[in-house]
């Protein structure tokens, strides 16, 4: 049996593991003693590898480039020469006719790795000539990056994952760590065993709430009011660190003026929390000699996400919980390499290494290195702008790599209209996805396990992963495909391996310069910033309490609470909040093709609801129900549980039949453009004929699966020469 | 003392990694491909209520109700554990009803017999289905080795003595504090 070192391709914990290979097939995974996982793996880490083997449980692996010459035609398998030439001709024509800003590309926060993301943004900027490149950080921790960059100067976790178990207080805010990052959950459990106090702010009784010293089940959509009330208590009870605030922060007077109104009693009406609990939380937090705030999508997926992130960083600043070990602020990244795709500049605002596209010196540096006269200076469009820009004719072509927006973006009907309005869509993926069904050209890439590279864990640690098996079929590495396309468009691009790409980007990014492949050998993990070849990187940021802002001080920021956008009415009286479950990941193209994970959970998924709501609607546990919003209607299975708060229902976002994004609203944060996935007004209805409903689910599921797999099998039959 | 696997509810995050590991450890080497919803029958079960998440499994009782209830002596004490002699199981379900923890089940599997190089189908065979501590697996119980939060431990005489020693020390400490 062969063993090949890899980094888990699921959440951002960055667990090191060995893929076990027999006869060219991955047959198992075993944990390694990596820096962040220390010999542990979770459900997905242990049993989430067999998608590589093309199990076809949900959807087939792509084996050939596939083209359809018109939208009503079927896909046909074509040669790489034809596929690349077709794409180059189409993109060049669209660029010439409508200008470079009519084309949009995406990086991938998933298995492809940092080098590919670097190459994708280079292609977008240097070859297409636009900053229209983005990644799914837009729909997850975009607000954390935008908010923390303003208040502290750096958008990432301030401290490392291993430090979590040594902190004396963990404030968990809108973050279901047990389902999102099980191996980090262990760190919190260990912190508690070492005497740390655990405070959890979440409307649901999530696993961590069960273990908490204090659980604050706030009303859905009241985050800003609670964070302001926290600040109010710290200031008015004199719990804050006056010396730290005087020496290392600015904006205190304006900050105090805004939060003054948010007394715990005032916040009680908005949050539904007893004023005394709000006070108690801050007494615990402020009393701890070291305290860490961790947050997730419960903070960011709101129309007011950026403000709340800034507010949370304010709590750390007020109490001096930054700039040293075992403290800090932690936006814990959800996808395995969403930190990496931001690091690599697949963002419309930034080059790799967080260097702004609006800075002429930065542009000149990259233009020189990339051998082009100039690079675009306008900020590009965001992923969530795409449907609107496509419908209004401003975007004409899209090149989607390793993402499935037709499953994961809000208001899917709107997303579909956007894709239909485009003149040319390229999807580059390892699986046939719902998004690929909108493509004109499908480019098949190698999977995690079939290529090597570097991922960034949630705590900024760069780690290498290696190849375990040879890819089957006529597929190429993502970065090779992009290079071929660049070359065909008149910009010769060629790399022999990922190390060449890595070394090119290191030279261009001062904060990554010291992170060599050699340092990341084996179980090596190097957290950036790492500016020198003899540096081991930075486990925590803001050493000496110097913030990466002009003047070096942290900014205290508060603003008024805004209610969520969607309106509850008699017709749509319940709040829908979209969430995660431990066994499935992202759009489910990977985990849905893993036998173990699919065995534990399959269509149509669950809508969890409180027993009181269920009883009022005549719904029993495990029955199929309709869930509808102003935007759509789907069928799902009721899970009736006291862990869910009354008045809200929760659905996970990876199901095709129970697709909650048919229901979500396209209302975005004004700064980060992140959608308000956490609040859509819905109605849940019982279905009288459960036998019909069960059959309906099976039929619709079979139809969807059949549609995707037939698209692939027919394409191959049509062109046997390439099959 | 019979060994048994014990779960700590204050560490469990309800992820069901133990269930999959259990099913795989009893799949005769079929691997993950052999898993399917209809045949997924782990011997350890994650239970989630409003207040608790934890795994439950056989306690390998010293005076086991299942052993006492079996009319055909199919359940025996062996290797410091309670084991089922599957060929003797009738599928009468007395053990299922006797078990106070709800961790004994009776399942049916296709029964086959090889005769003169041919495989003959004999209908179904009942099996009393419960934790067997993965006897024969060198690394011990599969569930214990995969639990990502170390909520599961194998309790043998030594581990039990250590737990009892720590508890007695704590009790002594607390008594001293009360006295002071």
From TrEMBL, chain A:
GO terms for cellular component: membrane; oxidoreductase complex. GO terms for biological process: formate metabolic process; respiratory electron transport chain. The keyword 4Fe-4S applies. The keyword ATP-binding does not apply. One of its GO terms (molecular function) is 4 iron, 4 sulfur cluster binding. SMART domains: Molybdop_Fe4S4 (SM00926). Coiled coil: none annotated. InterPro entries: Asp_de-COase-like_dom_sf (IPR009010), CT_Formate-Dh_H (IPR041925), Formate_Dh-H_N (IPR041924), Formate_DH_asu (IPR006478), MoPterin_dinucl-bd_dom (IPR006657), Mopterin_OxRdtase (IPR006656), Mopterin_OxRdtase_4Fe-4S_dom (IPR006963), Mopterin_OxRdtase_prok_CS (IPR006655). Keywords: 4Fe-4S, Iron, Iron-sulfur, Metal-binding, Oxidoreductase. Residues 1-56 form the 4Fe-4S Mo/W bis-MGD-type domain. It comes from the Bacteria. It holds the Pfam family Molybdopterin. This is Formate dehydrogenase alpha subunit. The lineage of its organism: Bacteria, Pseudomonadati, Pseudomonadota, Alphaproteobacteria, Rhodospirillales.
UniProtKB/TrEMBL annotation, chain B:
The keyword Iron applies. Residues 3-22, 80-109, 124-157 form the 4Fe-4S ferredoxin-type domain. CDD domains: HycB_like. One of its GO terms (molecular function) is metal ion binding. InterPro entries: 4Fe4S_Fe-S-bd, 4Fe4S_Fe_S_CS, RnfB_subfamily. Gene3D superfamilies: 3.30.70.20. Pfam families: Fer4_6 (PF12837), Fer4_7 (PF12838). Keywords: 4Fe-4S, Iron, Iron-sulfur, Metal-binding, Repeat. It comes from the Bacteria. This is Electron transport protein HydN.
């Amino acid at each position: 049996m062969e063993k090949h070192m890899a980094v888990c391709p699921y959440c951002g914990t960055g667990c090191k593991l060995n893929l076990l290979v027999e006869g060219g097939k991955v047959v198992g995974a075993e944990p390694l003693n990596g820096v962040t996982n220390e010999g542990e793996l979770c459900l997905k880490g242990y049993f989430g590898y067999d998608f590589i083997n093309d199990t076809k449980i949900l959807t087939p692996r792509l084996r050939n480039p596939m083209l359809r010459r018109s939208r009503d035609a079927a896909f046909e398998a074509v040669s790489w020469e034809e596929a690349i030439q077709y794409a180059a001709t189409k993109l060049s024509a669209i660029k010439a006719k409508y200008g470079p800003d009519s084309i949009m590309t995406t990086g991938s926060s998933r298995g492809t790795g940092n080098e590919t993301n670097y190459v994708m943004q280079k292609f977008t900027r240097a070859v297409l000539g636009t900053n229209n490149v983005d990644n799914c950080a837009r729909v997850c921790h975009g607000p954390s990056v935008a908010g923390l960059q303003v208040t502290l100067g750096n958008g990432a976790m301030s401290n490392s994952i291993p430090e979590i178990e040594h902190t004396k207080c963990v404030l968990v805010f809108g973050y279901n760590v047990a389902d999102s990052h099980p191996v980090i959950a262990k760190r919190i459990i260990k912190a508690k065993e070492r005497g740390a106090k655990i405070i959890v702010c979440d409307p649901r009784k999530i696993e961590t709430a069960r273990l908490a010293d204090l659980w604050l089940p706030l009303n859905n959509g009241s985050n800003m009011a609670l964070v302001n009330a926290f600040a109010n208590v710290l200031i008015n009870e004199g719990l804050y660190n006056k010396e730290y605030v005087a020496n290392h922060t600015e904006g205190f007077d304006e900050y105090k003026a805004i939060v003054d109104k948010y007394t715990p009693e005032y916040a009680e009406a908005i949050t539904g929390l007893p004023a005394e609990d709000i006070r108690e939380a801050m007494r615990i937090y402020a009393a701890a000699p070291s305290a860490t705030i961790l947050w997730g999508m419960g903070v960011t997926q709101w129309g007011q996400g950026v403000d709340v992130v800034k507010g949370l960083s304010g709590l750390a600043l007020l109490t001096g919980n930054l700039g040293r070990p075992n403290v800090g602020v932690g936006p814990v990244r959800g996808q395995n390499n969403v930190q990496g795709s931001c690091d690599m500049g697949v963002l419309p605002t930034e080059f790799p290494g967080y260097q702004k596209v609006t800075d002429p010196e930065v542009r000149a540096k990259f233009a020189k290195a990339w051998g082009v006269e100039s690079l675009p200076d306008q900020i590009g469009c965001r992923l969530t702008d795409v449907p609107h820009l496509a419908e209004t004719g401003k975007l004409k072509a899209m090149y989607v790599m390793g993402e499935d927006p037709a499953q994961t973006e809000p208001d899917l009907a709107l997303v579909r209209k956007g894709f239909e309005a485009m003149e040319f869509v390229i999807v580059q993926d390892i699986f046939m996805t719902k998004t690929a069904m909108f493509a004109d050209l499908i480019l098949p890439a190698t999977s995690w396990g079939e290529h090597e590279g570097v991922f960034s864990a949630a705590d900024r640690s760069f780690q290498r992963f290696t190849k375990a098996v040879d890819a089957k079929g006529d597929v190429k590495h993502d970065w090779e495909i992009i290079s071929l396309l660049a070359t065909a468009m008149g910009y010769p691009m060629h790399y022999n391996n990922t190390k060449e790409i890595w070394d090119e980007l290191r030279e261009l990014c001062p904060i990554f310069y010291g992170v060599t492949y050699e340092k990341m050998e084996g179980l090596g993990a190097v957290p950036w910033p790492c500016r020198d070849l003899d540096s081991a990187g930075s486990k925590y940021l803001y050493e000496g309490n110097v913030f990466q802002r002009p003047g070096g001080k942290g900014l205290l920021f508060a603003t008024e609470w805004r209610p969520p956008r969607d309106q509850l009415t008699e017709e749509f009286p319940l709040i829908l909040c979209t969430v995660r479950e431990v066994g499935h990941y992202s759009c489910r193209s990977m985990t849905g093709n893993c036998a173990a994970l699919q065995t534990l959970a399959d269509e149509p998924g669950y809508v969890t609801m409180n027993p009181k709501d269920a009883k009022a609607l005549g719904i029993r546990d495990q029955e199929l129900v309709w869930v509808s919003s102003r935007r759509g209607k789907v069928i799902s299975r009721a899970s009736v549980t006291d862990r869910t708060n009354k008045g809200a229902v929760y659905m996970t976002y990876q199901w095709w039949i129970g697709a909650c994004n048919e229901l979500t609203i396209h209302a975005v944060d004004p700064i980060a453009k992140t959608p308000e996935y956490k609040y859509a007004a819905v109605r849940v209805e019982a279905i009288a004929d459960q036998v019909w409903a069960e059959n309906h689910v099976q039929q619709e599921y079979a139809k969807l699966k059949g549609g995707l797999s037939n698209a692939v099998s027919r394409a191959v039959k049509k062109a046997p020469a390439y099959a | 003392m019979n060994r048994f696997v014990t779960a700590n509810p204050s560490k469990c995050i309800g992820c069901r990694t133990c269930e999959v590991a259990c099913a795989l450890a009893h799949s005769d080497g079929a691997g993950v491909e052999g898993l399917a919803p209809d045949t997924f029958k782990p011997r350890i079960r994650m239970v989630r209520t409003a207040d608790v998440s934890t795994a439950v499994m056989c306690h390998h009782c010293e005076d086991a109700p299942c052993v006492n209830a079996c009319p055909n002596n199919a359940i025996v004490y062996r290797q410091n554990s309670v084991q089922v002699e599957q060929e003797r199981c009738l599928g009468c379900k007395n053990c299922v009803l006797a078990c106070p923890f709800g961790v004994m089940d009776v399942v049916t599997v296709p029964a086959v017999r090889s005769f003169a190089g041919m495989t003959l189908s004999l209908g179904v065979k009942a099996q009393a289905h419960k934790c067997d501590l993965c006897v024969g697996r060198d690394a011990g119980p599969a569930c214990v080795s995969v639990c990502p939060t170390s909520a599961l431990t194998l309790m043998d005489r030594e581990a039990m003595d250590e737990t009892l020693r720590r508890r007695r020390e704590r009790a002594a400490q607390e008594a001293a504090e009360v006295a002071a």
